[in-house]
């Protein structure tokens, strides 16, 4: 008896499982509204009725606002359109005035809804693209998912205009540097090129209006090379015509406004840091397109401790009042408004006497006389001499700066070639800090 009872319980469980398998809608009838986040824009050939933005969309909007109970359980395009109108029109879009902006008609033949009022325009000439693929279903039967991009386009009274898009949704570019983009139009799943000379435009994100960018047009392949001289985020579109084959007939229409975001940043400066004197270092860097000014940062450690020490519009700066013999590290970034370039690579230098410069070397009564320019902050100079081409330089004289800026080299031989170089030094805590050698000067004794 007990065994029979167990069999009956198992049969009952299986029966319930079959009911829920055959009638999934019944099983999920009490599931609440679904919410997704999607990207949306609405456009025609002249402007964006609603520039691209992110929308949070609930699956119960169609029923709440229009009493439409959709066949899909999730969020559909009709819900997205309603959410877009709520975002665009605010309190003006309510149960008494909603049909001034958006309305639908029902078809018994297709058991579906179509759009009759679209952002205040009475029309049925609208197409819908989900992630750049045209929807072949009605707005209440096309479901969308989290992160989808929905584009709603008006294609003209004759349906001759074509949905168009760039090859990317977003581009990254550097100031003053050209980048490549391609525009393509869509005719029932087949890509066609817009006509040569399609004009690139900027988009006013608040109004949706397009402004032609001078000199930026496409070629016969739909390709354009464009650039921006200021860093920032740009929104671009295009205006132009497209000629295509429509079931054996040649048709010319407009492209509907495509959309892309361009993030333009500045290059990092390329920096040099060179010794200038015993107490100064000269920092220089490349000019960056779009930069309004530059900030210089300094540290006594290579990888940390940097502090801003100078803001300038120039591309050079001399850092004075430094400690002789101490190593300093520098990095620079470009600034334009609130935009900042990456930091340059870190460069270092040590304040020391400047590189010596030999002014003159000459024969003087059987001797050689060398003279040089005074080096700022130098306490003295060291003279080096080499005889012939195979000899080695050796220190022949150390002179105090207060004593002389020239040296007479004696004990030389006629017909021999002698080479000279010098360097300055500064005494710091009893030790000599040397500058760089001068250029080598040669002379043949006559």
Write the layout of secondary structure elements.
Layout: H1 2-22, H2 24-27, E1 35-43, E2 48-58, H3 61-66, H4 77-89, E3 102-107, E4 112-118, E5 121-122, E6 126-130, E7 133-134, E8 149-154, E9 163-166, E10 170-174, E11 179-187, E12 190-192, E13 199-203, E14 210-217, E15 223-226, E16 232-239, E17 241-246, E18 249-254, E19 260-265, E20 271-277, E21 280-285, E22 293-299, E23 307-312, E24 316-319, E25 328-336, E26 339-340, E27 347-349, E28 358-364, E29 367-372, E30 380-387, E31 394-400, E32 406-409, E33 417-428, E34 431-434, E35 441-444
Parallel strand pairs: 1-8, 10-19
Antiparallel strand pairs: 1-2, 3-4, 4-5, 6-7, 6-8, 9-11, 11-12, 11-15, 13-14, 13-16, 16-19, 17-18, 20-21, 21-24, 22-23, 22-25, 25-26, 25-27, 28-29, 29-32, 30-31, 30-33, 33-34, 33-35
């Amino acid at each position: 008896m007990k065994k029979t009872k167990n069999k009956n319980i198992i049969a009952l469980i299986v029966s319930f499982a079959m009911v829920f398998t055959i009638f999934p809608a019944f099983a999920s009838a009490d599931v609440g509204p679904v919410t997704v986040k999607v990207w949306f824009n609405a456009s025609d050939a002249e402007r964006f009725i609603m520039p691209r933005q992110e929308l949070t969309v609930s699956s119960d909007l169609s029923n709440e606002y229009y009493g439409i109970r959709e066949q899909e359980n999730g969020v559909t395009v009709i819900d997205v359109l309603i959410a877009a109108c709520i975002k665009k029109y605010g309190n003006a879009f309510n149960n008494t005035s909603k049909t001034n902006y958006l309305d639908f008609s029902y078809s018994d033949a297709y058991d579906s809804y179509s759009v009759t009022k679209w952002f205040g325009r009475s029309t049925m000439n609208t197409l819908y693209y989900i992630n750049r693929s045209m929807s072949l279903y009605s707005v209440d039967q096309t479901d969308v998912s989290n992160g989808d991009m929905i584009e709603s386009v008006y294609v003209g009274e004759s349906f001759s205009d074509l949905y168009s898009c760039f090859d990317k949704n977003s581009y990254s570019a550097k100031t003053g540097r050209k980048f490549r983009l391609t525009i393509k139009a869509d005719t029932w799943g087949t890509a066609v090129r817009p006509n040569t000379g399609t004009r690139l435009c900027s988009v006013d994100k608040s109004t949706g209006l397009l402004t032609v960018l001078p000199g930026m047009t496409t070629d016969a392949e739909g390709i354009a090379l464009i650039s921006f001289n200021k860093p920032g985020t740009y929104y671009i579109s295009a205006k132009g015509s497209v000629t295509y084959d429509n079931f054996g007939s040649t048709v010319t229409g407009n492209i509907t406004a495509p959309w892309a975001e361009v993030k333009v940043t500045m290059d990092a400066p390329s920096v040099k840091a060179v010794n200038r004197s015993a107490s100064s270092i000269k920092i220089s860097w490349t000019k960056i397109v779009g930069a309004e000014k530059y900030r210089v940062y300094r540290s006594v450690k290579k990888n940390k401790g940097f502090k801003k020490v100078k803001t300038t519009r120039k591309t050079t700066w001399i850092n004075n009042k430094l400690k002789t013999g101490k190593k300093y590290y520098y990095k620079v970034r470009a600034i334009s408004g609130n935009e900042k370039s990456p930091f340059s690579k870190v460069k270092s230098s040590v304040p020391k006497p400047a590189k010596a410069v030999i002014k003159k070397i000459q024969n003087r009564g059987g001797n050689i006389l060398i003279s040089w320019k005074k080096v700022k902050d130098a306490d003295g100079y060291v003279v080096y001499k080499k005889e012939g081409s195979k000899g080695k330089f050796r220190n022949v004289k150390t002179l105090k700066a207060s004593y002389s800026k020239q040296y007479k080299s004696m004990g030389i031989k006629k017909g021999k070639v002698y080479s000279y170089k010098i360097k300055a030094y500064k005494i710091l805590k009893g030790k000599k800090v040397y500058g760089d050698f001068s250029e080598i000067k040669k002379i043949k004794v006559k």
